Amino acid sequence: MSRCMQCHAQFHEPLHILNFYKATPLICPSCEQQWEDMCLTKDDTSDVRRCQRCLKVLAEDEITCLDCAFLEQSYRLIDQLYCTYQYKGMVRETIHQYKFLKDVALAEVIASKVRLPQEQFDYIVPIPSPVERDRGRTFNPVKVVLDQMHVHYTEMLETRIRPKQSALGKMKRARSANPFTFNSEINIANKSILLVDDIYTTGLTVHNAGAQLYVRKIRKLGVLTFAR
């Protein structure tokens, strides 16, 4: 008998040849299904179109992604967003419980769901949060998940304390000064970089961080997030 790390219900997984050598599941079948229901492709049909770059569902009258067009006025766009889950339902509840209610044990659940892209990158770089915020939380939500995934990452960005981005409108966020600075001696010219963040919302956070990398003549910039 196992206990689900999400709903804390006890569950029993019947033993058979397909799971005999597998580790015990972290979450129960009900929670597992709720994660599956939040997959970005779950409700896609032949009529659903997504931006190939940022994975946003395009409106019927959108020929090109308006979000990317808005960002392109001020930034060089990322090459690709890699993300599996929508930020709603079980996924949103889990990230909120983990990040804001400091249930750090859920990092193991999130790590089990996040998948690195198959493409190879020279450096994997976590999006930083202000030191003061990490100190109050007692952990960095992105780095702890990467640690759980046993991913080697390189810290080369830092950021100052700023208003929580979820509390600001899109235009206010766009007009804010870039909060990120590059703090590494590494020469990243012609390198490919994978930025990792928890949530992709407007794209302004990762494009601000990307601006500090593009100016150093990187070759490619991908972004991995836990949810979109």
From TrEMBL:
One of its GO terms (molecular function) is glycosyltransferase activity. The keyword Glycosyltransferase applies. Keywords: Glycosyltransferase, Transferase. Gene3D superfamilies: 3.40.50.2020. Belongs to the ComF/GntX family. This is Amidophosphoribosyltransferase. It comes from Staphylococcus argensis.
